[in-house]
Amino acid sequence: MGIHTADAIVLRQYPYRETSVLVTCLTDRFGKIKGLVKGLRDAQRPRYRSAMEPLTLNRIVFYDTRTSHLHLISQCELLGGYDQLTRDLDVMQSACSCAELTDVVVEVDEPQPAIFRLLRETLQRLASGERRLASVRIHFILRLLRLAGFHPQLDECTGCAQQPRDHHAFWSARQGGLVCERCLHQDPQAEVIPPAVLEAFVECAEAEGPNRVDPQQTEAIQGYLDQFLQWHLDRPLKTLTT
To answer: Looking at the predicted structure, is the pLDDT value of residue 47 above 70?
Structure first.
């Protein structure tokens, strides 16, 4: 049995029996873990105060039994609560969306330090008063999917691997990205993606941070991404915007 210390962002929390909780966390060193925190809801002995609430950053000590994906979290210290997230419903919805998508995409017990940093920076950005919520969400989704290895294909046709001719590109969430006119038979419901929207889409995918994009283009990109997630995730997202 190993004992480990890690910084952890809480993605989900469930009551367990009378006083304990089950949590899903994304840690900086060990990836996503699931753990049991005993006595967290004991009103007579409030061991951790406001620690281990969803969307909080904590330093935890946990026991790795090596026989189960459920670990025993013996200690936790609240490092940051991102209180500003709760002051605006739209900001909170964006933060919950990022946490839920992380939970769905990341496998248990696989170290993902880059994804941990991405989620932490995104929550900090939202908590700091960033008002371009759609741009923040688009950047997070695109970067997360790229790190996870199944991002939308935006530079060539998913069918023939050729660049669409004369800017005649079609969007197919089912196929995972662009489809050229020759490959439309693979998804007859694919829709034309306007060149300006595609250009903005590519810029968002390559940017280091949230881009300033025309609101109409932002809405279109967000719709394409939501379609992509609906097709390619193992389970539906409760926080999906469409």
So the answer is: no
